[in-house]
Write a structure and sequence with these properties.
Blueprint (H helix, E strand, L loop, with lengths): L2 H22 L8 E6 L5 E12 L2 E6 L2 E8 L2 E6 L2 E8 L4 E6 L2 E7 L2
Antiparallel strand pairs: 1-2, 1-8, 2-3, 3-4, 4-5, 5-6, 6-7, 7-8
Length: 112
Amino acid sequence: MSFFRKVDAAALFICIFLFIGGCGMSPGRSFIGDWLRIDESGSIYKNEWVKISGSGDKFFWENPDGKFPAELVDGKMNIDFDGFPGSASFDRKSGILTFGVHGVTIRYVRKK
């Protein structure tokens, strides 16, 4: 195989890889995973957790109280707690998920 064919093949491979990777990264993927509650100092509450799952535009927020439907709207996750609205946002820079419901704000970090 000539040098130019190798370069063309490598360039094609890189383009395909970037295209597939870009298509698979939906904004909601940053929310998916297991989360642990933290206090103001960053200490973890081991028994207070959230699991966020889903794909496409359908998500679920699961905690010790049950599993609830959620949707992503303008970068925020809106959760329906049996008629009571809650919302969560994720700060990529700090890695903190901030959740609010009934005027209360709770912070989470990703479980390692």
